[in-house]
Fold this protein.
Amino acid sequence: MAGRIITITSGKGGVGKTTTTANIGVGLALLGKSVVCVDTDIGLRNLDLVMGLDNRIVYDLVDVVEGRCRLKQALVRDRHLSELYLLPAAQTRDKTAVSAAQMQALCDELRKEFDFILLDSPAGIETGFHNALAPADEVIIVTTPDVSAVRDADRAIGFVEAQEKGPARLVINRIKSDLVRKGEMLTIEDVVELLAIELIGIVPEDETIIMSTNRGTPAAMDRKSLAGQAFRNIAKRLTGQEVPFMPLPSDDGWLKRLTRLVRPTSS
Amino acid sequence: MGILDKLTSRRQPSSRAVAKERLQLVLVQDRVQLSPHVLQALKDDLIDTISRYVEIDREAVEITISQNQRESWLVANIPLSRGRAGSRR
């Protein structure tokens, strides 16, 4: 088996990298793929919380790299999906604990065991970012439709291109359709035009993300969550399926919205 | 919000349009990492160098950064002096 190593990064923090990683992981596992989500944010780990696996961690990524345990001992299996695993970051170390070469070697091991290796990158463009980028076969850039996030995303894309890891693909997260309609938020088309990379997902602002994160059960597990559906669509696109981008919530009339409440659409 | 405020705010472009325009400008500079200051220095040097070979209209020289997708170009528009466009040598 030769799994695909996909790094999920953004430049700016707080745009939803970790949420995106967890949800795409769930989406791919729901499609029957074997997936490991790797938290590369050493010292500031959170993917474990978002995936609801925080109380099951025994060893972490740094323990593996420094030989204190075998790789399989550090992998935490998901509570719901048997083909989904987490490799947690160390919480008591910093970004210098692992080198790019060590990350590469680790991912080469994981590649033998899994269909997909999703690397959740730290924010910023320093060591941790570069370490997460080094082993990547593909890169997903997450941004939100605001000036700082788009600017930082552009810097991150620049590094991806410079290291010939491109072309990166784009997820636009937390789109507030009511603001877009009023002309008070960058549209999907604006962001794609500015960043000039291929779009792989659009995710509406959705309260179910907050609730699912509170519970440690990614929204992609929830059939009724609109954001969850958007993330499942991204997973499908990653496996080569052609899935149309879903309309933003308020693009629809009240009747359609009501219908969706009763019966979630499959688009 | 009073009626007057509403009327005046309507004349302003949407914040979306402002955001897009500001980003377009800032991304060009971020990508090529050329400050306006450095670009001016480059322009002066270029004018001096070319002037050693042909007479040019110094005031009309334009150096701009052009972008298509994620590729950038320096575009120089260098008009030759009228009437005396021939070689100096």
Notes: Chain B has a mean pLDDT of 83. Chain B touches chain A through 15 residues (CB under 8 Å). The first strand of chain B starts at residue 62 and ends at 68. The beta strands of chain B are 62-68, 71-77.
